[in-house]
Amino acid sequence: MPVEFDGEYWAEHYGGRAAHGGRQPTVHLVTEVGDLAPGRALDAGCGEGADAVWLAARGWRVTAVDISATALGRGREHAERLGAEVVDRIDWVRADLTTWTPPGDAFDLVCSHYVHSTAPTGTLVRRLAASVAPNGTLLVVGHHPSDPHHHGQPPRAAQAQVTAEEMAAGLGPGWDVLVAGTRTRPAGGGPHGPTSRDAVLRARRRP
Ligand SMILES: C[S@@+](CC[C@H](N)C(=O)[O-])C[C@H]1O[C@@H](n2cnc3c(N)ncnc32)[C@H](O)[C@@H]1O
């Protein structure tokens, strides 16, 4: 029976434990965004906040959104451990990305990692893209269907899979696609350990 990736699913996912445990930012964020000048960022589906905290520590002013109050609480605690500057640069927002519209100006960076929400991929990408300022960057990452960690798993894993082409199809006109492809990353276990395969879309909104 396919599982709905709704609020109830994520509440159970985070219940009682640090689900993604790491204090490390996503490897694709570091690669794709590391050389951008800090500005305003939206981390959509921020989970326990490793990416939001990494961005804030580099001077970005971050709006970090997630449907899970537990995950947001852990993100806040993580930020507090790094001090007042990081705390002050992050707004933690509990909201459902399928309906939430950010107030105020658009963002210089909108990033979203592994958010397999209930909305179709194209719909979610379109919503995220609408929040990017002219010249701003959109970075969306998901689990690619060829990811070996999903082979032989139940239908809910298949629901979470996506290709960069599917994500790019959610963009309207007025975008330069800088990266749309499959990337590998270490999946724990050190340099000789297993790797995961991700779909990565990086695009820049034209002025
Ligand atoms: C697999 S986790 C990834 C978290 C984080 N981006 C990371 O890379 O570690 C997916 C996150 O998306 C959030 N999420 C899923 N659907 C959502 C929705 N409709 N609105 C807001 N957050 C959502 C979940 O609560 C969860 O924290």
TrEMBL record:
Q: Which InterPro entries match?
A: Methyltransf_25 (IPR041698), SAM-dependent_MTases_sf (IPR029063)
Q: Which domain of life is it from?
A: Bacteria
Question: Which terms under GO biological process does the entry name?
Answer: methylation
Specify where the region named Disordered lies, as residue ranges.
181-207
Q: Which Gene3D superfamilies match?
A: Vaccinia Virus protein VP39
Q: Where is the Methyltransferase domain?
A: 42-136
Q: Which CDD domains match?
A: AdoMet_MTases
Name this protein carries in UniProt: Methyltransferase domain-containing protein
